[in-house]
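lol ok so funny story. i was supposed to be doing the assay writeup but got distracted and ended up predicting the structure for this chain instead. priorities right. anyway since i did it might as well share w the group, maybe its usefull for someone
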Amino acid sequence: MLFFKTFIFNFIMNNIEYRALFGLISILFLRVFGLFMLLPVLTIHGIEIHYATNKLVGIAVGIYGLIQSIFQIPFSFLSDKYGYKKFIIIGLIIFVIGNLIACYKNSIWNIIIGRAIQGLGAITSPSMALLSDLLDEKNRMKSLGFMGIVFGAGFSISMFLGPFIVNLFGIQSLFIIASFLGFLSILIAIFIVPCPNKHILNRDVSIVKTGIYKIFFNLNLFRLNFSIFCLHIILMFNFITFPILLNNFGFLKSNYWKLYFFMVIISFICSVPVIIYLESKRHTKIFFKITIVMLFVAEILLYFSINNFILSLLSMQLFFIFFNIKEFLLPFLLSYFAPIGYRGTAIGIFSTYQFFGSFLGSFFSGIILNNFNLKIVFFISCILIFFWFLLILHMKEPIFFTNIRFVLSKNVLNSKSFINFLINQPGIIEVLFFKKENTIHFKIDDKIINKISLKKIIINYLK
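and the output, tada:
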């Protein structure tokens, strides 16, 4: 905690904000690590578990995504109503129970049931909403972005550490470790994460019922939702097939973690400069298409590399590099395409597509491998990417505006002259207010006006 406080945001946060950010990102990291370190392991060692078939291994990998996609939005609504911290703790208890069931017997059915139970505790949205309640507006967006970095770090570390642990202690040790991490997260939630004094609905992180229809039928958002859906189908296709491909070349299972480690490091080194460039230059439309083309190239190469070990490794590396870039690019675009006041709803639906894609990819790869060979999986990936590219072919470049929210009194929000005054200010593109929440949302051109100057304009008007 002291290290964190010294080196992260030392000059802008009070003690409650430090506790909130440290506690919630620790919970997120431990949970993500506990969940995903099983992912490469099941695809490597899953067939060795009692009663396992390729089909059941696919279900065991993906069942978490199916349950999460079903319960994410209801869990978010309930946490909005009854309290974020309570539901984070409930979600973590569910996570621990799922792990204990999975490690009870060395049976694929126990793992399937345990993974399904884990999916019930969808705590990502409540965690983001609680962080939003506990942090000052000036720290909020940077902290939410930091949570995204932690999520990616947890996933990347679990990729190679999971197989390493299994080589030493066996597959059931992962569930025991994940249970311990879940219990540790519960203690962090109880004793470190503060309780908010009051809850103000933040539409940037919360799902709003009235916005679901609006988001579902937004063409630009549908393109992004379908993109994350396809991306995670292909990710699961590859996770299931890569170990089989390596095994066919006689690659030792005890060395898989080393291979994944180097691939993660190389992917990080190659993708970070591209991500920095995209964030600064914002040439997203062309890069969006390039990444899809490169994923197609990776799958084509995998199709033809069945008998070529070096080409297989290069193809796998190519996939991981452009998967990382795509995984950054999609949420980045989502934040700009989301309608003002409904960003949280857009994120919730986006995540639902993502989890459901993970389930379908795992489920169908197991079925395909039960009846066909590896090449069919890569061939289907190519077809899917082709239709994906057709869908986004006419996607427009997003307009890079910034969304800002202020909490004001009802008397101010009822003033038509005040709203008209704001709309006519240079740099303000759109204004939307919600009287029940006492909030006003702006879409602004930050090259003309920023949050500080907008706040001064509002204060001067209200004097």
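The longest helix spans residues 137-169. DSSP finds 19 helices and three strands in the chain.
back to the writeup now i swear
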